[in-house]
Amino acid sequence: MTDFNEEDFEEEEDDSTPAYENEKLDILIRQMRVSKTGAFYVDILSNDDIYIIADEVKINRCWNTLRLTGHNQVKSDGAKYLFDALAANPSIKNLHLGGNSLGDTGISIFQPFLSTNTTIIDLILTDNQITDIGGKLISEMLRQNSTLETLVLHGNPLLDTGVISIAQALHKNHTLTTLKLYRTAMTDVGAQELASMLRLNTTVKVLSLDDNEISDIGMQAICTALHDNQILTCLNIRQNQITDESVNTIVTMLQTRRIFDRLDLARNQLSDQGKETIRQTNTNNNNTVKSLIL
């Protein structure tokens, strides 16, 4: 009979990688499970954390808003897993992904999903390092999507090229009502294309262009386009390079408008006299602009 040593019966060590766990994140998800919003405001979510959240998104039908904001570390595989989960969930209407460094690669993964999505109406992609390449992908999405109403792209270096792509897509888009392009490194070139869009588009009501490099050339182009456009009711264009050279054009635009909910021209280069001329025109015109910020 063959002798067996005791060590022959010892179990082999398990070399498999243990499943990733994040107890704090699990607790947070449980606390929000029956809320209307899944909000993850933390300093850093790892790519593995995104997988955990996406698994909840797949099955949670209470959330109509998903907010993943912060300096997160989302990789391509994590982004794809999240977008696949969103595709399986018809309940999410508002998607806020600010500060996730998705970049153009993330947008290339996201674009096919959103092009055919029929549930998300509010999309915030602030500070995601999206360039003009991503801007073109977003424009292709806007040509196909017929549900999205709000698009926020603050803090992305779209440049004029990216803005032009988006503006041209909106010539025929009939659902988007709010477009926000703060800090996108836009100049008069991009502003002029947006002016061309305003001549044709019949749905955009809110346009925000704060903190760009728009001068009188761009401002005058927008004002001229608004002579005939009675759809846009809110224009935010503060902290640009607009001077008194635009005052007469602004005045003429106000005189041809039926109503304007908000016009924000603060922190430009208008003189006190220029501001007073605009203010007085609004008063004489029965306060066409309800909220005039100079």
From TrEMBL:
Gene3D superfamilies: Ribonuclease Inhibitor (3.80.10.10). SUPFAM superfamilies: RNI-like. Keywords: Repeat. The keyword Repeat applies. Residues 1-16 have a biased composition (Acidic residues). InterPro entries: Leu-rich_rpt, LRR-containing_regulator, LRR_dom_sf. Residues 1-20 are annotated as: Disordered. It comes from the Eukaryota. PANTHER family: LEUCINE-RICH REPEAT-CONTAINING PROTEIN (PTHR24111:SF0), LEUCINE-RICH REPEAT-CONTAINING PROTEIN 34 (PTHR24111). This is RNI-like protein. It comes from Adineta steineri.
